[in-house]
Amino acid sequence: MDIKADTAALRQLDRAHHLHPFTDLQDYAEHGGRIVNRAEHIYIHDTDGNKMLDGMSGLWCCNLGYSQHSIAEAVYRQLRELPYYNNFFKCSNQPAVELAKALAEVTPAQFKHVFFTNSGSEANDTNIRLVHRYFDLLGKPEKKLFISRKNAYHGSTIAAGSLGGMAPMHKQAIGLTYVHHINQPHWFENGGDLGEAEYGLQVARELEAKIEELGEDKVAAFIAEPVQGAGGVIIPPQTYWPEIQRICDERDILLIADEVICGFGRTGKWFGSETYGIKPQLMTFAKAITNGYMPLGGVMVGDQVADVLLSGGGEFTHGLTYSGHPAACAAGLATLEILRGSDIIETAAEQIAPHFQRRLREFEGHPIVGQVRGQGMFAALELVANKASRERLAPESRGAVFCRDRANSNGLMVRQTGDAMIMAPPLVCSTDEIDILIEKLGIALDETA
Ligand code: PLP
């Protein structure tokens, strides 16, 4: 089929039949969108013939780009050998077993067990049931409350959306009543006159205050991303995580690190928990575990929780038809094989990310850039009306949405959250490709100013 000739027909069918996630459905039905039909290395192509540098690694998942054929081949082989069997009823399959072992090896030392899901959302749902089961088995059934952060994104199911702190999502379905939210550590927006270190301590201590308010005997867990991603790539002040860790340790609160974006090299080490010195009892992963090529997520269960679950007796009443799907696990294994057999994470951390972060800081002098923040291959530019006062852009002015659209039209895929431009390029970018990203971003910023 000549795809290009059929672009108009495809777009028409898409508008007629396809409801898109996180999209203004009326607008899409009227105007349609871009149909992506091919990708290689760090570039995507659409049916109109445009080639775009993917500054977002898809949806923060294709960390190794689009040309990792060994993953595709592993999936194909697995589909021929054993396309499906479930992991219920005392059954298992080889890729799931091998991936569980490999994950135990690459994740921090406290993790030896994994529960597989198909997505990050389901993994965070799983966290809720794991935590409730853990405290029930310990004879503390009143410990049921979760604390999370405003503007956090932990997924789209009703439970994961409740753990998240995105107000518009809460408005579109009533969520769980046992989740409470504290502020995110967004120094630029909320720090006022405080220095970053002092602000980091202050905002971390909101957790302590919330535990006091709700009762230590009722709060079960605190969930957070090491670096909040969809919430705006919020880089925490250095003081933040040590204080959060202290509070959780002293108060018998489980710490859940949601590593769905941070995991597998994004922040410079294998996991964001390692970058920030966090020791969680539970850890959510998804996305880059298969380099985005197959749906797979899960929860790494630390020894403290696993020991109780494994000695508690009675059924853990939770599972998904595709938990530990053999083809998805084969994709995960092939991805880990690439990561473990190469120095991609180290090269990105030591050579590519420093170049990326240094070049981004050239925009600090740009008239509409209030702050440049980032860690590893992860960054945001906060756009402002007034750099000195940090005054926000007026709603009617050209802002981050306009800037994103200009960048996209100019061949660079980046995203916007609030007034921030956000980026998470593949770890396999070269420094020359980072320079192309910077050049295209600069043009979009100039067009927006
Ligand atoms: N947690 C975080 C931190 C995420 O960024 C996301 C998705 O972007 C999720 C959970 C949900 O993952 P999924 O979209 O695979 O359900």
From TrEMBL:
CDD domains documented for this protein: OAT_like
Top-level taxon of origin: Bacteria
GO cellular component, one term: cytosol
GO molecular-function terms, A-Z: pyridoxal phosphate binding; transaminase activity
Keywords, comma-separated and alphabetical: Aminotransferase, Pyridoxal phosphate, Transferase
PANTHER family tied to this protein: AMINOTRANSFERASE, AMINOTRANSFERASE CLASS-III
Family: Belongs to the class-III pyridoxal-phosphate-dependent aminotransferase family.
Protein name: Aspartate aminotransferase family protein
Organism: Parahaliea mediterranea
